[in-house]
Structure formats: C-alpha cells, structure tokens
Amino acid sequence: MTDPVLHLDDIVKTFPGVRALDGVSFSVMPGEVHALMGENGAGKSTLMKVLGGIYQPDGGSIHVGKEQVTMSGPLEAKAKGIVFIHQELSLAEELSVAENIYLGELPRKSFGRVDWRKLSDQTNTILQKLNVGFDATTRVGDLSIANQQMVEIARALTVDAKAVIFDEPTASLTDAEKVVLFDVISDLQKEGVGIIYISHRMEEIFKITDRISILRDGQYQGTVNTAETNEEAVTQMMIGRKLDLSRNETHHELGDVALEVRGLSCGKLYQDISFEVRRGEVVGFYGLVGAGRTEIAETLFGLRDPSAGQILLDGEEVRITSPNDAIARGISLVPEDRKGQGLVLGMNCRDNMTLPQVQDLTSGPFVAEGAEVAIFDQYRDRLDIRTPGWKQLVGNLSGGNQQKIVIGKWLSMHPNVLIVDEPTRGIDVGSKSEIHKLLRELAAQGYAVMVISSEMPEVLHVADRIVAMYSGRIMRTFTSDEVTEDSLIQAISGLGGHEAA
Amino acid sequence: MATLTKQQIGTVLAKQGILIAFAVFMVAFTLANSKFISVDNLFSVVRSSAILGVMALGVTFVVISGNLDLSVGSMMSFSTIVVLDLHDQIGPALAIPAMFAMTLSLGAFIGFLVGYLRLNSLIVTLGMLSAIHGLTLTYSGGQNMDIADKEGTWFSVFGQGSALGIPVPILIFVALAALLGVVLAKTPFGRKVYAVGGNGTAATFSGIRRARTVFACYIISAFCVATAGLIQASRSLGSQNTVGQGLELEVLAAVILGGASLLGGSGTIFKTVIGVLILGFIQNGLLLIGLQFYVQFVVTWVIIILAVWLDIAAKRGKLLSSIA
After folding, report:
1. Rounded Cα–Cα distance for residues B61 and B40 (Å)
2. How high is the mean pLDDT of chain B?
3. Is residue B36 part of a domain?
4. ipTM value of the model?
C-alpha cells in the first residue's frame, strides 16, 4: 500500500449560519484519478478553496505526502505541488503562450532581461508532452478555448506537481478536444500525479476515474470504486433519492397550435424554418452549438429581425419587434446564458423575478411590493427555490436555484408560449431532474413549450417531438416514438438528408 | 441577541461604513473647533452644499444606470448664464421655463447619444463638457452676465429667500431629494434604472427598454442641473461664464462617497445626500481648523480616496487585495 499524495482529514468549515463542510476526509493516491461529486452547494468548491488556501479550515488537517501543511494561499499550494486547473480561464490574451505559462517567473539574463530562448525552449518541452498543435510564441487570444485550457495545464506542469485538480474542465470542450484532455490526464497519471476531477458529467466520470468521493450538504457520503458502481447508485448518494432518467412516454392531450413558424429565415444564421408548437406539447430543438437554434428563439422574442417568413400566434400572423412586444403577446424566453442574460446578479430574488412585469405591478405610481412578495412566495414554493428569503441577492444562490428564479420569472408572466434555451446548463443532477419534471408539468397544464438543448438525454426525456437542426436548417422532425439516438445524431451532423415533405 | 461576532461587525461596517465615516469626521472636527457644530455653521454648510447636492441627485440616476455624466459642471454654467441673460430680456417668469427647456434639450441630446446610439458615456459627456462651455462663451460673447436691477426683482428668492427660517436652496434640495428618492426606490422606473445598470443585457431580455431608461436618466440629470443653475443665478444675480467649472468632479465624488458603484446598479439617493454632506463638512471643517483654502483641494481628494478604499476594504474583508 503506497501513501496518498494528498490527504484531507476531517475538514470543517463554517460560515455564518451554514456548516459548509462537516468533517470531510478524503485522499488521493499517486497515479489515481479521483472524482469529487456532489450537487451544487454540496461543498465541493468550498473544499477546494480550503485546499488552495483561499479559506482557512475551522478544523481538520491537510497532508501533502507525509507532511502536515497549512495553506496560506494558492501560490503556496502551487509551491507544495498542488495545482488547480480552473473552470474559468485566467490567461492574458495579448501575451504569448510562453509568457502566460511562466508569468511572474520568466527566466532572466543579465540586467533583468528576459531570456527568450530559454523561455521558449522550456515551454516547447512542456508543450511537446501535451502534444498540442501550437508553440511557445503563439498569442493566447488566437487559441481556441480548448487550447487555452491546455495552456493552463501546461502552466501546472512547470512545477513538480503532486496533485492536479481539474474543476469542470470539459464544460466548454468539443468531443474531439475532450479526447486530447483525457490523454493528458492519463499521461499525468502515468507519472504518478494524483488527479482530483470535479464534474457533473457522469459519462466522463465513469470513463476516466478510478474512485469517486461524494459530498452532500457539506457531508462526506463515502468513496466508491468506479468499476464497482453505476450512475444510479452515485446519483442516489449525491441527492439521497432515485432519479428518473427514463424517456418521455407520457403524452398529454394536445390543444390548438399556439405558435406556428413558416419559412422563417434570418440571413446566414438560419434558413427556411417551419414548425408548430401546440398547447400541451414540448418541442425539443436539438443540434450542435451554432446550428441556429438560439437565433430562432431570439427572433421569436423580438431580439432579431427575420429576413423572410411568417410567425403566427394562435393562427394570426404577427410581427414581433422587441422583447417588450413579445412579452405582451405572451411569449417568454428563458435565455441560454443565465448570468449574462437571465439575471441581474446584484439584485435580490424578488426584484429579479418580477422584473418583466414591474411596470404593471403598481398601486398608484409605486411598485406594489406586497404583490411582488406574493408572486415570489408563490413561485418559490412551486419551484422549490431554496433561499433564506426574497432579500437574498441572486448572485449568492447556487446555479440550480438561480435557474429556477429565471424560470419563475417567466412563468409568473403566464405565457402562451414558453421558450427555454439550455435550461439545465451547468446545474447539478438533482435540480436538473426537477426542471425536467417541471417542463413536463407545464405542458400538461396547457403551455406550449419549446426546449432548446445540446444534451441528448434532456431532449429525449422532455420532448414530445424533436426538431433536429444542422447548420441553420431543420434536418428532420422526430416524434418521441420514432426517434433513436443514432438517427438523431445523424440528423444533427448533417447526414440524415432533408426532411421529406 | 448575544454579543456581535467579528463577522457581524464586518457586515455592519460594510453596510454602514459611510455613515460611520461621517460620524467620525463630525466628531473630529468638533474636537478641533467647537464652532463647527454650531447651528449657524451647520446651516451654512448645508446651504452652500445645496447646489452641489441638487446636481448630485441627478447624477446618481445616471451612475446607477451604469453611465457617467461629466458635463454637469459646464451645463450648470450654461443654465446660470442663460437665465441671467433672459431675465433682463423677457422677464424672470419666462426666463426660467426657457432656461429649463434649453438645458433639458442638452440633456436629451446626451441621452440620445448614450442611450439610443449606445456611445460611451465617458467620451460623450467629456466632449459635452467642452462643447457646452464653448456654447456658453458664444452665447455670452465671453462677457460675465449681470442682472441690471438687482434690488427690484423677485428672482432672488430661489437663492437668497427663506421660508420658516430655512433658506430656500435647502428647501429645494430637500424637496427634490425626497421626490427623486421616492422615484428611485419605489417606482417601476427606479427599478428599471437599477436593472439596466446592474445588467443591461438581462434588462433587455426582461423587456425593459434600455435606451429609453438611460435617456430618462440624462433628462433627470439635466433637470437637476437646471435647478442648480437657477439657485446659483438667483443667489448671486450675476455670474462668470465658468461658475460651474470643476463641479462635475465634486458631484461625482459625492455620489461615489455615498457608495454608488461606478459600474452601475447600486447606490441610493439617501446615500448620495450623505456623500454631499460629508464633502461639504470636510471642506468647511478644513477652513475652520485654519487650513489655507488651496490646501482643501488636496485634502478633500485624499479623504475621498481614503473613504472609497475603506468602503471597498470593508466589502472584501481586508485592507489589501491579494494578487491571486
């Protein structure tokens, strides 16, 4: 039995009113990929901040190798061989790859001049190990996100890393780029580095990790060998109950056509789009990023002008000129980018939720705050939003609860057509299944729902019909009975041919 | 409640930092010169702060909406000169609305450029600072403006009058602060201003007309500037072309001292009023403890930077930010 490279023992961290970490222990062996899983708010980030010295623990100890250490900050952690690869990249775009990697510790010649040759040699040695297609002098801003992430990883390799922590590393990578990342991880593994891998994506966890440790509500739930468990068991440990991942098999009584689109085009973004959504129906829009789905939603919400085609609401042709106009006609859009488009993070929960209708929620010239609180309470209960109260700033909530605020905001407008764009991006499995269930329920209540998603299980799970898009065109429309994963993948890759009829 | 924890004290400091700083200044100056706290002196400070204060009310809206207004100083000179000139030409009863109309058009122009054309507010209002100054000089032919019959006009009431023993400029400042405070805190429009400044994209996605909201903020700012110009003109009944010069920075300082974020989305009218008073009392206090007038410019800014630093430090929980 070898000794762990990193061992956390009985770590406790409390914040006012919250026990964020309650006696968490776990260890990473050399050459092991160890997944850390848990819902948003389970304490993963807090634990990593303790490890990186950003928070000081209130109890417990950290051991690197055999030595007990106190981390005073990320620099000290790095010096001790603990390296973090963050989800959000922190690179200087205008500088070269080499300058980014050795930022702050550039090799020097006499008179403090930078030794460019040495810098470039050192960098290229590392880049070769990573097997990437760029070199030391490339400007970082010219690289793809995946390659920028490689630069972050290269940065980690400049020290004698004992443990490397990857925090949601694949969030913005394509499948091909993921393969490269996994190769890098397996190389690190061979060198005896311990890897902590944080991710929500089950298929990755089961593909690359050796063991899985699970946190729930700040408590350590246990560690399992990946080979001896399955998704369901892990999920159950994470959320404390079973998860419904079945295909959508219930169908509701369909009502009239609420939204019909005929031959809609918008320049090069999408062309000749026709579909209809009935009341009581969920129509999924599936395709790759850039297939034009979000742009269709933005057109329906009055954010873009179509260059051709018709939009009909309840059978009547309409021209939607602004979001304000769309809202007045009963269209709601839960946008793709929760933080950028959906919420004012510095505003409280209540104000965010009532923002689209604040003009109408008045008594005399003033905002009727009582009515606002009533709306907030209603949707907090209905969507099970967990927050200490409406005064809480939305920026302090977890991703899943933030998303529920956005959904609540649009449900409270009682729309005829509800468009949701990537409703579960970046939120944990528990909230994810709640949101799926909610979308089904909304359809059952007679809403016409459009769901745009890049996740196949999601569209399969929630949609009655699936519109497959490729490069701005509809390739095929499937009913949930006829759809298969293969045919869906073919359609969104442009292989399925155009829809007949 | 039991004893306060360190964290709770930190929260109180972060939230009420500016009020605490205000109290500390007041005590310090009173200890240095007991005249400071006298009723006469307090009144005189508030009265001399009224013009700055009225302008700061409008700029608060602009700043919360995520923009800047650096043109208020030269716009105030413009209003003052115009109303003084028109006073003798068409009489005060017509001169006042005419001046308001002209100032509001300037505000509308800026609001159009920043709101509808989406130009950067720093560039636009910096340009307008200079352009309006030129406009004022052109209008006045470079001359100072004086009312011919200074004794026989009721126009002086806005700057020199008083009601119930309270000077009219103070009454105007208080009334306008109360009105705009309610507009900002309690009306749908106020909510939209916060939303647009907090996250303009999310506001647009919520059906808020961002351009219109920003436009309205500049109209409010121009209205406040016109009011300030009216008080200024009425107080002196004559004026130089450059009477408002430099005020844009003092106004901005007061708004920032009050705790509004230059990034938009936060701030309140009440806090701005506190900011205005702090600025006024600091300048007055420095005079009373016998500092030369010119030293004030330096000391004022040192104190402002100190206050802003303490405010930020309280929010992030330590005095120096770490690199990582």
Report:
1. 32
2. 87
3. no
4. 0.83
Which pLDDT belongs to residue A500? 41
In a domain, residue B321? The reply is no
For chain B, say whether A346 makes contact (Cβ under 8 Å).
yes
Q: Do B265 and A367 touch (CB under 8 A)?
A: no
Contact list, B213 vs chain A (CB under 8 Å): none
- Digit-coded pLDDT (tens) for B148-204: 888 878 888 898 888 888 899 999 999 999 999 999 999 999 999 999 999 999 999
DSSP lists the bridge partners of residue A30 as none
Tokens coding B77: 């000179």
pLDDT digits (tens, 9 = 90+) for A457-480: 888 889 999 999 988 899 999 988
Q: Is residue B89 part of a domain?
A: yes
Spatial separation of the C-alpha atoms in residues A189 and A340, rounded to whole Å:
37
Among A333, A341, A351, the residue with its CB nearest the CB of B201 is A341
Residue range B131-144: average pLDDT?
A: 92
**pLDDT tens digits, A207-239:** 899 999 998 878 888 898 998 888 888 888 887
A108 or B59, which is more confident: B59
Q: Which residues are registered as beta bridge partners of A114?
A: A108
Closest partner CB to B199 (pick from A324, A326, A345) = A345
What pLDDT score does A448 carry? 94
Measured between alpha carbons, how far is B115 from A326 in angstroms, rounded to an integer?
22
Find chain A residues with C-beta within 8 A of B265's C-beta.
344, 346-347
Q: Please report which helix (H) or strand (E) contains residue B16, including its range.
A: helix B6-32
Is there a domain that residue B276 lies in? no
User: Which domains can be identified in chain A, with CATH numbers?
Assistant: 6-239 (3.40.50.300), 257-492 (3.40.50.300)
Q: How many angstroms separate the CA atoms of A15 and A11, rounded?
A: 14
CA A198 → CA A81, A170, B176, distances in Å?
A: 18, 10, 54
| Contact map slice: B 197-226 vs A, CB within 8 A | 198-199, 201-209
The whole-number pLDDT of residue A397 equals: 84
- Host domain of residue B201: 50-245
Whether A372 contacts B186, CB under 8 Å: no
Contact yes or no for B170/B46 (Cβ under 8 A)? yes
Mean pLDDT in residue range A314-341: 92
The Cβ of residue B173 has, within 10 Å, a number of other Cβ atoms equal to 26
Chain A contact present for B188, CB below 8 A: yes
Q: How far is the alpha carbon of B95 from chain A, nearest alpha carbon, in Å?
A: 31
Average pLDDT over residues B47-63: 95
Distance CA B45, CA B49 (A): 6
Overall number of domains in chain B: 1
